[in-house]
Amino acid sequence: MCGVLCVCVFVGPGENLQDIICFWSSREVRIFKSTAERKPSIKMTTSNGELLGLAFMAFFIITLSSTARYYFKFFCFIAFSVVCAVGPVPLMLLRPRDYRNALIPAYLCVGFGKMLGASFTVRGKENIQRNHGGVVLMNHQSALDLIVLAELWPIMGRSTVVAKKEVLYMFPFGAACWLWGTLFIDRQNRDSARNVINKEAKAINEKQAKLLFFPEGTRGNGDKLLPFKKGSFHVAVESQAFIQPVVISKYHFLKSNAKIFNRGQNIIKILPEVPCAGLTKDDIPALMERVQKMMQREYELLSEESLSINNISEVH
User: Is residue 6 part of a domain?
Assistant: First the structure.
C-alpha cells in the first residue's frame, strides 16, 4: 500500500512561482507549478477560515458562558429595538404624535422577544374598557419591559407612555418615541413635570386616552414592589379617571447580578379598574396604599405561578 503525504513549499521573496510538491507514493514524485496569480485566492481562503474560526469561537463562548450570553442577548435586544423603532419613522412623519405609529415596532418587538426567550401571556383583556381613558400602572423590572409595553399597546387603544426626558435625547430612538406620542418629563423639576402631565391628563377625558406609568419610578426585581411615586395618582385624581393596574410576574429567567438571561414564560395580568371619581388630593395616600397592596398580592401569586410554569426551584 502506498501512503499519501502532501507538503507545500513556497519559494523566497521576489519569486513568481511556488512549488507544490505532492508525494502520491513512496516511488512517484510530481511537481506542479502554479503562478503567483493564485496567491490572492489562497489568502482569501485563509481569511474565510479565520472568520469561520472566530464565529465558531464566539458561538462556543456564548453557548458555555452565561455571562457572555447575557450581554449578547441584551446587545441584540437593544440593537433590534432601535432598528424596529427607527425603521418606520418615514411613515410616522405622516401622522406625528399618533399612538398608532408604535403598532409596527410593537409587533416586531414582541416577535423578537420570543426569539430571545422572553415570552408573555396576557390575561384580563376583558377588564379593558376602551370607551373611556384612564391611568395604567405597571410594575417595572428591566429594559425588557419594553416588550410588555409592546404587548399592551395594540389592546389598550389610544395610549401614551410617560418617560424621563433623557430618553428624548437618545437619538434616533428618542425621535421615534416622540413621534408615537411619548410624554417626556423632567424628574428633577417637579413643578414642570406636574404641569406637563396635568396638561396631558386632559386627553384622558377629551380623547379617551390612557397614560401608561411605571409608578415605582425605577427598576426593581425583588419579591416586593418598590414604593410608588405620587405623580400618576395625582393625574388620576385630578382627571377623576380610572386606574388600571397591570401586574407582570417576576422575571425568574433574568438575573442581572448573576448575569443570567435564560428563556422564560411570563404572565401579564390586567386587573379590574379602580375608580377615582369623587376622590380629592387628601385621598391620594390611601389610594396609593390600596393599589399597591392589590398589585403586590397579584405580583406574588403570578410570580409563584411563573416558577411552576418554567419548572424553576428558587431558593430564598
Answer: no
Beta bridge partners of 90: none
**Structural domain count, the chain:** 1
Strand 17-23 relative to strand 5-9, pairing: antiparallel
Lowest mean pLDDT among 121-125, 218-222, 261-265: 218-222
**Alpha carbon distance 179, 94 (integer Å):** 10
Q: HSE on the CB side for 151, CA within 13 Å?
A: 25
Give yes or no for a contact between 143 and 256, defined as CB atoms under 8 angstroms apart.
Answer: no
> What whole-number distance in Å separates Cα of residue 41 and Cα of residue 35?
12
- Burial of 40 by CB count in 10 Å (0-12 exposed, 13-18 middle, 19+ buried)? exposed
CATH number, domain containing residue 226? 3.40.1130.10
Instruction: Decide if 60 is inside a domain.
Output: no
- Using H for helix, E for strand and C for coil, what is the string for 46-73? HHHHHHHHHHHHHHHHHHHCHHHHHHHH
Give tens-digit pLDDT for 153-202: 999 999 988 888 888 998 889 999 999 999 888 877 777 777 777 777 77
Task: Specify the pLDDT at position 135.
Answer: 96
3-state secondary structure of 273: coil
Tell me the residue range of the domain where 215 lies: 69-315
Residues above pLDDT 70, as percent of the chain: 81
Residue 210 lies in a domain: yes
Give the CA distances from residue 23 to residues 1, 5, 38, 289, in Å, rounded to whole numbers and listed in that order. 14, 6, 21, 86
What kind and span of H or E run contains 247? Answer: strand 242-248
